[in-house]
Input
Amino acid sequence: MSVESTELGVERIVTDVCIIGSGAGGAAAAWTLARAGLRVICLEAGGHFGQQDFSQDLGVASRQLYAEDGQRLMRGNVFIPVAGGECLGGSTVVNSGICFRLPRWRFEEWHRDHGLDFEYDELLPFLEKAEQMLQVTPSNPAVYGGNNAACMRGLKALGWSGGPMPRNAPACVGCGACNTGCPTGAKLSVARTFIPAAEELGARFITNARVEVAHSSGSRVTGVQATLLDPATRAPIGSLRVDSRAVVLAGSAIQSPAFLLHNGLGNNHVGRHLKVHPASGVIGIGSDRIEGWNGTPQGFYCDEFLRDDRMILESWWATPEVFWINFPFGAQGGERMRDFAQMTALGGMVADQSEGTVRPHGLPGKSRISYDLIEADRVRILKVLERSAELLLAAGMDTVYAGIHGLAPLRSVAEVREQLRPDRVRLKQMMTLYSSHPHGSIRMGNDARHSAVDCRGELYGSEGLFVMDGSICPDVLGVNPQVSIIALSLMLAGGLAAQLGGRLPG
Ligand SMILES: Cc1cc2nc3c(=O)[nH]c(=O)nc-3n(C[C@H](O)[C@H](O)[C@H](O)COP(=O)(O)OP(=O)(O)OC[C@H]3O[C@@H](n4cnc5c(N)ncnc54)[C@H](O)[C@@H]3O)c2cc1C
Ligand code: SF4
Output
């Protein structure tokens, strides 16, 4: 069991490794370092919520589980939400359970462009370990519901590649609540896998402990100072100092660079090169009852266009108010919502060439994020909408709405291609832009002139501070990130363990 800020009873801890953040990267690092016999303390800004605590009320879930209460935005030539978890287990607690491996060809691009000093085959065992721990299996058609089944029909009709989504929820019952925390415990987030396994090995997780200060001696980082928060009010109630031989920063690709910049650590690549996989979607309306709320929300994918066109299509689902706000129903909104049971939803994300910047906000736990969507990515997002619409029409939907302000309902492939032409749609009309995959903002590479951490994850310009979360991706991933982040973290934490004299079992 994790330790609550209110139960701590000490103001100073000495340990081998202090980890900041308990999400995908932090939890995997904690498990590896504890397996090697090292003393591990992991400090988590958010609270500990189990399946009995989750609420499907979006307002409650946002406050309990999401960074900045679910209100975080990137500002630039368009505003895009960038969601992230803030709780024990981080974003893996609120994610959709999608599990893709980093493709070999993408890694080769990273290798070519960023000078990594390890090969894909060295990372492969860690990708496999991540999948094994998360029990990744294809979504079960018996519970994935009408929305995914309709997408499968469209996929088959068009002959595109794809299928049931690989996910880390083998016992999923299709209740549809993934993004507010899985109430059945079926989704195997790191809070249900790596964290309990690390705790059994002696690692300690302290919740409602927000790290704000890095302590240094010369260029060596020697520990951190955390503010302890009241679990109910989030008001400061005390502080904790942790002195350690190494610090692992795993606060996510938004909070980690904000923390480094706030503490004046790292070179001028920290906080730059942010990738987010901007996403958008369409809904289709047919004559049959689909009942998209029943079933796995994201149980279908199409990877036909993944490599050449930098996009992947994935089914999604949301509440009626989200549909109402984000689609151009115009004055017929009320009428359209009567068709809610006949709706399907599909969308996709692009491997962005746009780059954002993260800066500290001045207020603890907050950040300023700027991100301009470049023209090539705007065009790709329109292509995502076009292909999603075509797939839903092929699935038998009569009408498709794309999330573009002022766009007429689409009833044929010809209309789709005409209406979604890049010269007909302005960026400001794109209503459903969304992101939840920040990465790349403390990028890894073997040259400090181009990167922020070296290939062991150690921050250039400092000793003793290692980054092990989505920030270190050298460039865009292009597939949903959790498996790749966990694998990188498992690999780097193994290297750190050896450096500290720990011994991993064979
Ligand atoms: C709604 C949503 C759906 C998603 N769906 C999928 C999906 O289906 N498949 C997939 O692969 N990916 C998905 N993702 C993304 C995936 O979950 C993340 O990419 C991954 O978890 C990121 O790992 P991380 O270690 O970088 O950060 P996180 O998992 O976000 O963890 C960071 C943790 O650090 C803590 N922290 C930050 N700063 C501090 C501090 N100063 N002190 C203490 N603690 C701190 C945070 O509170 C947080 O708990 C989704 C994300 C979201 C938000
Ligand atoms: S759909 Fe499946 S994984 Fe998602 S919350 Fe429900 S049971 Fe859990």
About this structure: Residues 97, 169, 172-178, 182, 184, 186-187, 296 surround iron/sulfur cluster (ligand 2) (CB under 6 Å). Residues 3-95+100-135+189-274+436-499 form a domain with the FAD/NAD(P)-binding domain fold (CATH 3.50.50.60). The chain has 13 helices and 20 strands. The mean pLDDT is 96.
